[in-house]
Structure formats: structure tokens, C-alpha cells
From TrEMBL:
InterPro entries: HATPase_C_sf, HATPase_dom, His_kinase_dom, HisK_dim/P_dom, HisK_dim/P_sf, Sig_transdc_His_kin-like_C. It comes from Pelomonas margarita. The gene is glnL. This is histidine kinase. It catalyses: ATP + protein L-histidine = ADP + protein N-phospho-L-histidine. The keyword Repeat does not apply. Keywords: ATP-binding, Kinase, Nucleotide-binding, Phosphoprotein, Transferase, Two-component regulatory system. Its EC number is 2.7.13.3.
Length: 365
């Protein structure tokens, strides 16, 4: 067997990539696999180095032919889609990947080497979707903010005029006075709506050291006070998560909005006594948020066993004024997303009946 012990140092930089990369011989023998590959395949470095890359491919022949063609310089690179089978998880569904095979300089001994990049197709689609979402959210946010300002300005005038009218009418008909009260009341409602829309942009951030679990505990206590019966809020914390810099009050509001939504849709289950919310924290490595890459991030999952987000609004829940519930103003998630973005993070959601998971990702230093 060839001695590959010197090879990894040469490829150390590849370990920093989020994309899976494997260096093989022309025959498919693994000379090196980076950390992303080992993580995804759940294999140790030793196990990888004795293996044949084609063994993990559904269509081994296709890969072998490509490796051969590239190594023999018939073409300098080639791309195709394939499905990876995971070693110990062979019973799991395969992992669809986009494969890019390129030439590499030969090793010192002259053995031809080939670079194989494997990009998870699901991941590509997700990143694409996240990016599109962020752009859309940004555009809508701008529109909302401008609109809110336009609405806000005349409101004061309308309210004042209605009050003057009420004074004039004082001894007149009580019916007309009632109308002016309706005007004032509705203006106040609009005013508070507009204030909520503008709130996260107006207040300067108060940045300090924050602990995600302290925030979770605060929110948990608040929501349990509001719903003392039939609701269990479980925690599954990764206590190794470090503190980070952020605006504590805003972050509490962000998590609260999400947990409150869950509590609201769980009402029928609370009545039955089996409503559940789970707060789970995890470390995430090499995450892309929007267009930025972070080495380390924290994930807070808020999971509930409610009915799921209504299908007709699923793509739009983070947009302002989109609500699926009676009396909802549709601002909670917009505000939460804004807070996450102000912390360079983001929120996404996966939902099906019986299981809804809101994931907050925040970069860590
Ligand atoms: N955990 C969840 N399960 C099912 N649906 C949800 C969940 N969280 C949010 N939703 C849906 O997303 C909609 C939008 O939520 P959002 O918090 O933005 O607005 P809202 O709760 O309707 O009003 P507001 O929070 O401003 O009072 C909700 O009305 C609800 O239909
Ligand atoms: Mg809400």
C-alpha cells in the first residue's frame, strides 16, 4: 500500500471548505478527503483513506470513467449529478450531489491525481432559497417602512380633527360624538400598528454580552405565565455555547414572538393537555447566512406539535401583514426576522402538520 501519511498536510486548506472534496488516484482510491466529506459521510479519516471513492456512489461506473478520462487528460474537468450512499447509514436515502471532477498536478512520484468536489444538491437549493428570501425581505422591509411613514404623518392630523369635532358636538347628538370616538379609536389602532412596523428601525441597538439560554429561559417563563395549563415547554440546551454580543431586549422579543406564535396555534392541544414546545440549541459550523460565511454559529430551534403553518401562507410568513390567524397583525415574524438580521443572523421555518420548526441561526464570534 502506498504511504499517504504526508499527503494531508498538503491539503490542509481543503478542511476549511464547506464543500466536500476528495482527492483520488485515477482508479478512485481516496488519497485525501476533507473534513466536510468526513462529517457528511460520518467517517473517520482512517476509514476514508483506505477506501475507494466509487464504492460510495450509486453509479460507480460513471465516476470511474470520469476519473479515468480526467486523469488521462481526455478532458480537464467534468460535471455530473450522482447519489452518494453513506457507509454506516446505508439504509438511509442516498444523498444527491453535484460532482465536479478536475485535474490536479501529479504527486511527487508522478502518480496522476484527481480532485473531486461534491456539492449537496439540497444544500444548493436551500442556499438559493435563503438568498432569494433575504432579498425579498429586504425589499418588502423598505417598502413597509416608507409606507408606514406616509401613513403615520397624517394620522396625528386626523386624530386632532376628530377631537375638535367631538368638542364642537359636545352638547349635540351623542350619536355623532360616537362617530368621532370611532375615528379616534381606529386612528389609535393604526398608530400602534405603524409604531410596531417602525420600532426595530428606530431604536438604536443596545449591545452587550448575551447568553442564548438566559434568553430562552426568560421567554419560557413569560409564555408559561400566559399559558399555565396544558403547555409543556421542554429544553434541550447545548450548554457549551458561548455568550455573544447582541441586544438582549431585542433578542428576547425575537424569541418571544416565535414562541408566542407556537403557543397560539397550540390552543386546541392545550385544551387537550398535550401541547408541546421544544427549545433546542446547537452549534453549527461553516454556515452561510445570506451571502456571508461564518465559521461558527448557534442554532435555536423552536419546535411545536401544532397543526403546522397554513400551506397558503407558508412562503410568505416573514412578510409584514401576512397572518393566518384571526386578529393577527402579521408583524411578529417580520420583526423577529429583522432582529435576527440586525445580528447578522436569520430565521427559517420548516413545517408540517404535527411538527413545526423555526430555526434561528446567529453567528458566533
Ligand atoms: N408555530 C406556528 N405554527 C403554525 N403557524 C404559525 C406558527 N408560527 C407562525 N404561524 C403562522 O404565521 C403567521 C404569521 O405570524 P406572525 O407572528 O408574523 O403574525 P401574527 O402572529 O399573525 O400576528 P402578530 O404576531 O403580529 O400579533 C401566523 O398568523 C400563523 O398563521
Ligand atoms: Mg405572531
Amino acid at each position: 500500500m502506498t504511504d499517504h501519511s504526508l499527503l494531508p498536510a498538503e491539503f490542509a486548506g481543503l478542511d476549511l471548505l464547506a464543500t466536500m472534496v476528495v482527492v483520488t488516484s485515477a482508479a478512485g482510491e481516496c488519497l485525501f478527503a476533507n473534513a466536510a466529506f468526513e462529517d457528511t459521510m460520518r467517517l473517520s479519516r482512517r476509514a476514508v483513506q483506505r477506501a475507494q471513492l466509487p464504492d460510495w456512489f450509486d453509479d460507480a461506473q460513471r465516476l470511474l470513467e470520469t476519473l479515468d478520462g480526467v486523469a488521462a487528460n481526455h478532458y480537464s474537468s467534468s460535471r455530473f449529478d450522482a447519489v452518494l450512499r453513506r457507509g454506516a447509514w446505508a439504509h438511509e436515502d442516498g444523498l444527491p450531489v453535484h460532482v465536479i471532477v478536475s485535474q490536479m498536478e501529479a504527486a511527487a512520484g508522478g502518480t496522476p491525481r484527481v480532485l473531486v468536489e461534491l456539492i449537496e444538491i439540497g444544500q444548493l437549493a436551500r442556499q438559493d432559497r435563503d438568498e432569494r428570501n433575504l432579498d425579498q425581505v429586504q425589499a418588502t422591509k423598505e417598502l413597509t417602512r416608507n409606507l408606514a411613514h406616509e401613513i403615520k404623518n397624517p394620522l396625528g392630523g386626523i386624530r386632532g380633527a376628530a377631537q375638535l369635532l367631538a368638542l364642537e358636538l359636545q352638547d349635540g347628538s351623542p350619536e355623532l360624538t360616537e362617530y368621532t370616538q370611532v375615528i379616534v379609536h381606529e386612528v389609535d389602532r393604526l398608530q400602534s400598528l405603524v409604531d410596531r412596523l417602525l420600532a426595530p428601525h428606530r431604536k438604536a441597538q443596545v449591545v452587550g454580552d448575551v447568553n442564548i439560554h438566559e434568553i430562552c429561559e426568560r421567554v419560557r417563563a413569560l409564555v408559561l405565565i400566559e399559558h399555565p395549563k396544558g403547555l409543556a415547554i421542554q429544553r434541550d440546551y447545548d450548554t457549551s455555547l458561548p455568550d455573544f454580543r447582541g441586544d438582549r431586549e431585542q433578542l428576547i422579543q425575537m424569541v418571544l414572538n416565535i414562541v408566542q406564535n407556537a403557543a397560539q396555534v397550540l390552543a386546541p392541544r392545550m385544551a387537550a393537555g398535550d401541547a408541546q414546545i421544544l427549545l433546542r440549541t446547537r452549534v453549527a459550523r461553516q454556515v452561510t447566512i445570506g451571502k456571508q460565511r461564518w465559521r461558527l454559529a448557534l442554532e435555536l430551534h423552536v419546535e411545536d406539535n401544532g397543526p403546522g403553518v397554513p400551506a397558503e401562507i407558508r412562503d410568505r410568513i416573514f412578510f409584514p401583514l401576512v397572518s393566518g390567524r384571526e386578529g393577527g397583525s402579521g408583524l411578529g415574524l417580520t420583526l423577529a426576522q429583522t432582529v435576527a438580521q440586525q445580528h447578522q443572523g436569520m430565521i427559517d421555518c420548516e413545517s408540517e402538520p404535527g411538527k413545526t420548526n423555526f430555526r434561528i441561526t446567529l453567528p458566533l464570534p
